[in-house]
Write a structure and sequence with these properties.
two-stranded antiparallel sheet, 498 residues, mainly alpha
Length: 498
């Protein structure tokens, strides 16, 4: 949509969707839960749209190095907001839960005004669509109806329902319905089938294949060369597990502080502030690694996955020993890992596919919420089965109000439920670390500020960068004059071949 309608129109539409969703949630009657769900649907659509469009705008007309500097500010803001949001939300809820949604209304109105008055003339308009033989040189544009026909509706629907049903089945499994029930098995099976169909569909949309020949004007939602690229697949998995770590800290440490430490909901929310300096420090470190030295995307991704795995694994130990100081430390440590990855992974993907940056950004933007949903599903199932409690319970403070004869056992069960919940996702984070070892690397050059910059000033290595380091090869030495072609052109193997 950002290519068809331009950045300004698309950004404003997403903000308007956020306003509509927030208004529906704010005014939803307590007797009409579907109204709240409808509002949340609009908010989800808007949040995804704003996320992708803003990242695309930041990547427009600048080199990858400049994009890294731009994104540093937004990564720091977004990272800190993940930690501050639940704290602010806790206090708003103590006044009236509707304020959690109403707070978006004045902010959204101001945002539309700022975009119109300040940014409108700076944002790119409708972009040339090669499938319609549109180019920057000719400046010709087909009618809107023809441009809308380039949208890959089939791919969008298969992706939406495929992933949506998988997440739904995993969310219901073991919590709302038994794993062997039709309510869980049917969404999972159908979701997997649709996801496989999505991959087949996008393959058919690749140049020279069936759907590409039948509908040459259509643009695939995610080009097949992106879906099958080694680094993109690895980034998708590692970003998904990063979402698991993020949501685990925000959700299950809260349960621990309320049920085991006996904190009130407000005080438990405040403890999440220990997560904030970790994320902030990780984003700053990532910014320095990408912008200053060594100006590479691999180091923050590699060390970020390592720190995330260590933080989540040690969190289980800290809770088991009921060492509050160590719990705080592991919250901060996990935050550092999340912060390190916050900007590096999208930069890596955009560096590989400069001309498909919107598709890459959109694909990777799915990972954090998808990983959070999957992680919470796994952790909730383990927590429920080991503690005898329900992770969806509304008030864990009731544990502290039980008779003395029952309270100690209930607290111990809740503690072990949290411990095993963190243990359950640790192997996935460790696997993510091993996956990061297989990534290539990109060294950011100064580049061009032209919007058609093809990233030729960036040095791209698509093999296994760590393997080269272990062999003592300096594969990204700018002074050597070597330049690897990006994934958008004919791949050129570096000397030594990795």
């Amino acid at each position: 949509m950002a290519d068809i309608f331009g950045r300004n129109a698309t950004l404003n539409i997403t903000i308007i969707f956020m306003l509509v969703g927030s208004a529906l949630c704010t005014g939803a009657p307590t007797t009409a839960f579907p109204v709240l769900l409808l509002g949340r649907g609009f908010q989800g659509l808007a949040a995804a749209g704003i996320n992708v469009v803003v990242r695309t705008i930041l990547a427009d007309r600048v080199s990858l190095a400049e994009n890294a500097r731009n994104w540093s500010v937004f990564a720091l803001t977004g990272g800190i907001s993940y930690a501050l949001g639940p704290v602010i939300g806790g206090y708003l809820t103590s006044a009236d839960w509707r304020w959690c949604f109403a707070i978006n209304l004045p902010i959204g109105v101001v945002a539309i005004g700022i975009v119109f008055l300040v940014l409108r003339k700076e944002l790119l308009g409708p972009q040339p669509i090669p499938e319609l033989d549109e180019t920057s040189e000719t400046g010709r544009r087909e009618k809107l109806a023809a441009r809308l026909q380039t949208v890959d509706v089939g791919g969008q629907l298969l992706f939406l329902f495929g992933f949506g049903l998988i997440v739904l089945g995993l969310t219901w499994g073991g919590a709302t319905y038994p794993w062997d029930s039709a309510a869980v098995l049917v969404p999972l099976i159908v979701g997997v089938i649709l996801t496989v169909a999505f991959c087949f569909w996008e393959h058919s949309m690749a140049p020279g294949n069936v759907l590409s020949e039948k509908w040459p004007w259509q643009r695939p939602m995610i080009p097949w060369k992106i879906l099958t690229h080694k680094d993109i697949c690895l980034l998708f998995f590692t970003e998904t597990t990063s979402g698991m770590a993020l949501y685990a800290i925000l959700y299950f440490t809260n349960i621990y502080f309320i049920s085991v430490e006996g904190y009130s909901s407000d005080k438990a929310g405040v403890q999440l502030l220990y997560f904030t300096p970790g994320i902030g420090g990780g984003v700053i470190a990532s910014s320095l690694l990408c912008n200053r030295w060594p100006r590479m995307t691999w180091p923050p991704i590699f060390f970020g996955t390592l720190v995330e795995a260590a933080g989540v694994g040690m969190m289980a130990y800290a809770m088991w020993t009921e060492n509050t100081s160590t719990v705080y430390g592991m919250m901060a440590l996990t935050g550092v890992g999340v912060g390190l990855r916050f900007m590096a992974a999208p930069l890596h993907g955009v560096g590989l596919f400069r001309k498909n940056r919107a598709s890459v950004i959109g694909l990777l933007a799915v990972c954090v919420p998808l990983g959070g949903s999957l992680g919470l599903t796994i952790m909730s199932t383990v927590f429920n089965n080991t503690s005898g409690l329900d992770s969806d319970a509304t008030d864990f403070s009731e544990i502290q109000n039980q008779p003395d004869s029952l309270r100690d056992a209930a607290i111990e069960n809740a503690k072990m439920g949290c411990v095993w919940a963190f243990v359950s996702i640790t192997p996935l984070l460790v696997l993510s670390f091993f996956c990061s070892m297989l990534l290539g690397n990109i060294k950011l050059g100064q580049g061009s500020t032209d919007e058609d910059d093809d990233g030729s000033n960036n040095i791209i290595f698509e093999g296994i960068y760590l393997l080269g380091l272990l062999r003592g090869k300096n594969m990204l030495d700018e002074e050597s004059g070597m330049r690897l072609k990006s994934a958008e052109s004919e791949p050129m193997e570096y000397q030594g071949g990795y």
